[in-house]
Amino acid sequence: MKKIILFICAAILLQLSAFSQSSLAPLTVEKIMRDPSWIGTSPSSAQWNVWGDSLFFMWNPDKNLSDSLYFITLKNSAPQKANYNIKNNFVAAQEVVFNADRTAYTYSKGGDIFYVFVKTKKAIRVTATIQSESNPVFSFNDKRVVYTSDNNLYSWNINTGETEQLTNLVAGNKPSDKKSTGDKEAEWMKKDQLSYLEVLNERKQKKDAEDAWNAAHKKNELTPVYTSGRNIFSFTIDGSGRYISYRLFKRAEGSKNTIIPDFVTESGYTEDIRGRTKVGAEQGTTELYFYDREKDTVYNMSVKGLPGIDVIPSFLKDYFSDSILKKENRTRAVSFSEAKWSPAGSKAFFEISSLDHKDRWLMLWEGPSNKSKLIDKQQDDAWISGPNISSRATGWIDNETVWYQSETSGYSHVYVQHINSGKTTQLTKGNYEVQRAMLSNDKKTFYLQTNEVHPGEQQLYSLNIASGKTEKLTAATGANDVSISPDEKKLAILYSYATKPWELYLQDNKAGAAAQQITNKAASAEFLSYPWRDPEVIRFPARDGAMVYARLYKPANATPGKPAVVFVHGAGYLQNAHKWWSNYFREFMFNNMLADNGYYVLDIDYRASAGYGSKWRTGIYRFMGGKDLDDQEDGIKYLVKNYGVNEQKIGMYGGSYGGFITLMAMFTKPDLVAAGAALRPVTDWANYNHGYTSNILNQPFEDSIAYRRSSPIYHAAGLKNHLLICHGMVDVNVHYQDVVKLTQRLIELHKDNWELASYPMEDHGFKEPSSWTDEYKRIFKLFETVLK
Predict the structure, then answer these.
(1) H-helix segments, 34-153
(2) What value does the mean pLDDT take over residues 499-528?
(3) What is the largest CA-CA distance in the chain?
């Protein structure tokens, strides 16, 4: 009998062992959605110190309440926790500004300015005040440190220690210089008193003489410049100290902010959270000024005569005839970037962007002549954007050459222009994106992070500007997020793969050099005990001939009937069909769980996703829920054709933009999915913010067609199959108001195959494991009930 019992126990143990090692290892919603620290802990925010001998990063290997600052040195690669003194004295390399020959640097810390000699490492505290000083730079041919304080510029003379105020911007309006006419009776009385009272008359004459002497001998004063209700920001100064640029920002007046009620509070009362404005609200405006200190003259940068400044956006042709549009004479509103000065000074490089997002002008201003020149103009009937397409990715290579990034070719690439000849050279070319560009210290090399190898990979390259020769510096498949040491000899790499969370590596700045792993806590033993699927990155054809990338999770044993689920990533402009550790790590694990339970899972980089160039990015212009939803449908057809998936057993889920697409699928293509879970979805784009929405749909009062065809609330009558909606009630991004309005609409339409789960204490991104668990248990129950 004992032998029989032992035999049975051994058989059970063998079965359990085989089960735990198979693709059907136990994975539950509770396990996935609990505190994510069970996965492990990844380092983040890698930063070199200014000397380049230590690398600092945030980390939490002990699973404390929050991350702490850790560091390694080039002599000791074992991570150490930074104590108070080390943290207090840490100055990151990117926070300092060097002089031209790199013999000294300056930085701000704690609201004060510091100056350091590189050779001796001796630091001088330039300011020690209650008010805040910031943004120090070298100017006056590197003889002074110039910084901002109290909305003005000041300089500190390195040799003498003297501080001088350089600008005199004054808040408010200029006092009126009109002489008061006063009361006729009062004027007569004044003259009459002086006509016969000798002492009074003598005192007046004495005072007038003193005033005249003081006026003739007064200290030279800076001419006040009055801001007239505008905010001052963004001072820059040229290398000679003669020219200063600054911007003034005028806030929009009358824009109404939203209110988000917070029902569950410590006080027991409902409290209001002041939210953002909605799309179409009046926007603030910026102005750019140049101040010539030598001439004591201020120049306002005008857009008059700017090529294309008065062009009427093409979408308005849907509303007005050509004859009416020709009569329109309006100069479009713009914003100005910060001005960047040439190394020798006197020439400023800056960006102008139209507030309707359709035009970008790169401009040059020359100090002595007060003349501006167009360097490059970019235009898109949809909107200008893309990776690294901003004023941050612009600058000077030498006194005659500027660089910038542009999507003119269809992908974000690096360009240089010789400003005298006007000759422009495209340094990088191809159907890939330059996602980050960093200029070397000697300005002879670019370091470029690109997805040239594959849209779902990120690698670092060096590009010799003179020869055009490139070298691939990183090698590991996945994402390599690199921080280069100040001397450019070392690479700190935050690396991850689809099934491997981020770890920190150190590598020599050479092609083919081996990368040394520094941290090893990103994956816990418990996390590693599960055989995570490495989702296959596939491509399938869309109906318009484009090739769509997606992640595919395949079940080891498909459920009879072959159900499938489509996961739709959020943010719209975001990439998830890639080879690195996803920000959607919960969904990655949930997709594994779905595959464990017999589902095929497809995660699509639909139209407008990041990583695929400008045409892909703008594919949803004026119609969200158009091509992006077509891509979901074409992905489902791919599953049906290639894996025999049952087209009657399709589910869909996603949050934010993914929730929006789920609603559009169920409302406008009611037979496409049998069950959908829309999490924190936008239901009416007129409720969303201006910066994101006006790019894609213009403004509601100008382009109502785009809003009506893109907003699910107008299509709710099409709901046919089973819908779950989940939304946090204190969501300050996609407001709970969206789902309240949709709820009312579904009630009025007499729909009864939907449900709403509300989360009273959750924002857009949930915080509490209990909320995550509740939400995903509901999603799983929906799919299990409807699709099986």
Answers:
(1) 84-89
(2) 97
(3) 138
Single out the residue of 625, 618, 610 nearest to residue 707, CA to CA: 625
Band the pLDDT of 216: cuts 50, 70, 90. low
In the numeric block, which tokens belong to residue 257? 């902010």
In this structure, the number of other CB atoms found within 10 A of the CB of residue 266 comes to: 6
At 222, the amino acid letter reads: L
* Upper half-sphere CA count for residue 607 (Cβ side, 13 Å): 26
Which tokens go with 685?
């784009």
Element at 787 (helix H, strand E): helix 769-787
Strand partners, 334: 354
pLDDT digits (tens, 9 = 90+) for 710-765: 999 999 999 999 999 999 999 999 999 999 999 999 999 999 999 999 999 999 99
pLDDT of residue 215: 67
pLDDT at 407: 97
Using an 8 Å Cβ cutoff, are 635 and 602 in contact?
yes
CA distance 202 to 484: 76
Nearest to 544 by CA among 673, 630, 642, 647: 630
Q: Which residues pair with 580 in a beta bridge?
A: none
Confidence of residue 183 (pLDDT cuts 50, 70, 90): confident
**The one-letter amino acid at 520:** N
Q: How large a percentage of the chain has pLDDT more than 70?
A: 95
Q: Which phi and psi (to 5°) does residue 575 adopt?
A: -115, 135
DSSP string, 708-752: HHH-GGGGGGG--SEEEEEEETT-SSS-HHHHHHHHHHHHHTT--
3-state secondary structure of 95: helix
Rounded to 10 degrees, the C-alpha dihedral 5/6/12/16 comes to 150
Q: Cα separation of 656 and 53, whole Å?
A: 43
Which residue type, as a one-letter code, is found at position 736? Answer: Y
User: What's the pLDDT at 583?
Assistant: 96
Q: What SS3 state is found at 644? A: coil
For residue 745, report the phi and psi dihedrals to the nearest 5 degrees: -65, -45
pLDDT: is 249 or 208 the higher one?
249
pLDDT at position 281 over 60: yes
Q: How far apart are CA 345 and CA 364, in angstroms?
A: 12
